[in-house]
Amino acid sequence: MISRRLEAFIAVAESGSFSKAAKIIYVSPTAIMKQINALEDETGLCLFSRTFKGLTLTGSGRSLYEDVRLIVKYSEEAVKRAHKTEKCIHVGTSILRSGNYLKELWSKVSALEPNFKIRMIPFEDTFQNFMATLKDLGQNIDVIAAIYPLKRWNCSNLKLAMLPICCAVSRKHRLATKKRLCIEDLYGEKLIMIRRGVTSHIDALHDEIEQKHPKIEVFEAPYYDLGTFNQCEATNCVLISSEIWAEVHPLLITIPVDWKFFLPYGLIYPRNPSDTVLQFIDVVRTIMDLSAVP
Question: At the topology level of CATH, where does 161-264 sit?
Fold first, then answer.
């Protein structure tokens, strides 16, 4: 709830440098510096002593920091109290994490717990913005429906499905007319996939291709956003994808593959969720348990 300038101020105060603060809130060091300069201009205060050893708070900077920390604490408590007054779940939504895959689930939640309201909150798919959204999960956004790594993000998750890994190609690609692919169809192709180390499920596919299918040329993407799908279409490469991304780009076709590789899909929510979010997760878990009963 606090402004970006105050968020930057806290990060710099606690880390002692622009570069370290930038990593904390997922922006560039230049952006951090601009925020601090703007805050000093706005307040008329010199907040930091700048030396070759780093940044230290001045007397006025220390005073402001202590008060801002109290403001943050009170604002977080205010949000929690506000959430308790209504059972409203704020679901983060973006192009790659739209939540449309869960329309049936949302209707079942409403049927089982009519007092719950679902409010969709948009956010951008850029790496910096998404990581900042995860960091602040529980404030403006309560849950996100998404494919997720198992250990990388400091969040809780509720698995809803294991989705088959598919391939996406341009409508002009030689494979576009196929209803289903086998891995040999990818021989001679340039394959875009998320880099190693993000999720063990993709790492297993990396190992399979590297060890058994050297005729496939792999290009690692550091992160998936809309630009990744644009790149796939523009370069006529093959993109490792999922059925939930079938509508992301109108000029790409998503095709299933005859292999046994899957990605976990579910709800991402805070490590320390509000009572309302916990109740919501319990309702969803109940629905999943009932669906599993033959």
Answer: D-Maltodextrin-Binding Protein; domain 2 (3.40.190)
